[in-house]
Amino acid sequence: MENLIRPVIVVGGSVLLTVLIGWATDLLLRKADARHGETPLWGLLRRGRIPYQLVLCAALLRGSYDQAKLLEDHRTGVGQALTLVLIGSVAWLVIRIAAAVVETSYSRYARAHRDPARVRRVRTQVSLIMRVVSAVVGVMAVAAMLLTFPAMRAAGASLLASAGILGIVAGVAAQSTLSNMFAGLQIAFGDMVRIGDTVVVDGEWGTVEEITLTFLTVRTWDERRITMPVSYFTSKPFENWSRGTPQMTGIVYFHVDHTAPVDVMREKLRDILRACPAWDGRACGLDVTDTTPNTMQVRALVTAKDADDIWKVRVTVREQMVRWLAKEHPYALPRVNTADATPPPARLPGQSSSSDGAAARHP
What we know:
Elements: H1 2-35, H2 41-45, H3 49-68, H4 75-112, H5 116-147, H6 150-154, H7 156-161, H8 163-173, H9 175-190, E1 198-201, E2 204-211, E3 215-220, E4 225-229, H10 232-235, E5 239-240, E6 248-256, H11 262-274, E7 279-291, E8 296-304, H12 307-328, H13 353-361
Antiparallel strand pairs: 1-2, 1-5, 2-3, 3-4, 6-8, 7-8
C-alpha cells in the first residue's frame, strides 16, 4: 500500500503545488497589470506562465523523485529526462521574460518619441536583438542538455581541441549564411533600412515588412511579398523613400501638342492641387522639358508629406489634367498628322536644275 501511496503523494503533490504557485503568480501579475496600466510589462510576463509552471513542476519532480521510489530500475533515465525538461523549460522562460522586457522598452520609447523614422529604426533593432537572444539561449540550452550525458563530457576535451578546425570548415561552408547574418546586424544598427520603410528594389515599390538576420521581406503595393537576402541591401543600390524626412517630391509627365496652352495648364495645375487634400502646399510647378517632331513634353512637379500621399497627388493630377484637356482644349492632345505633304514650290521659267537642288535644300 505504501508503494502506491508514496508515488501518488510525491507526484500529485508536485503537480498540485505547481498549479497553486502558478495560479498565485498569475493572480499577482494580473493585479499588477491592472494597477500599472501605463506599462505592458506585467501583462507580457503572463505569456510565460506555461514555461514557468513547467519549470516548477520539473524542478519539484527532479528534487523529490528519489522519495517516490517509482520505476527504481529506470531511475537514471527518468532523472535524465526530468533534467532535460528542466533545462528546456528554463530556456523557454528566459526567452519569454527577455521578450517582455524588450517589448516594454520599445513601447515606452515609441510613446516618448513622435519621430516615425526613429521609432521604425528602434523597432528593427529590437526585433533583431530578440532573434539573437533567442538563438544564443537556444544554443546554450542545447549545449547544457548535451553536457548532462557522460559521454559528451568525456568528449569535451577532444571537441575543444578540434574547435579551431571545425570553425574554419564551418566558416567556409556557411560563408553565404554568415555574410547574411553580419549584413542583418549591419542593417539593424547602421540604420540603412527599417521595418515600415518604403523602398524601391529592382523596380518594385513596396514596404519593408520583416527583417531577420538572413532575409528581408518587402510587401509590394499589390500585396505580393518579395523575399531577398539582407546582403543585397549592403552590396547593391536601392531607393529608400523613408530615409531622412518623409516629405517627397513627385513628377507627372504629359505629352501634348505643340499648340497646348502651357500658361493655362499651369493655372489648372494649381487649381487641382488646391482641391487635393494629399498635397502639402510646399511647391508646385509646370514646365516644358522636351519636344519631339510630333509632341511636347510637359512636366508637372508636386509635393506631399510622405510616399503614400505623393502617389495620390500624382494620380489625381494626371487624371484631372487629361480630363480637363480633353474637355476644354482637345486640340492640345497629341495628334497624328494624316494630311498630304506640302508640295515643293513651282519651278520658275529658265530655272536650272542646280537651282532646283538649292531650292530643295532651302525651301
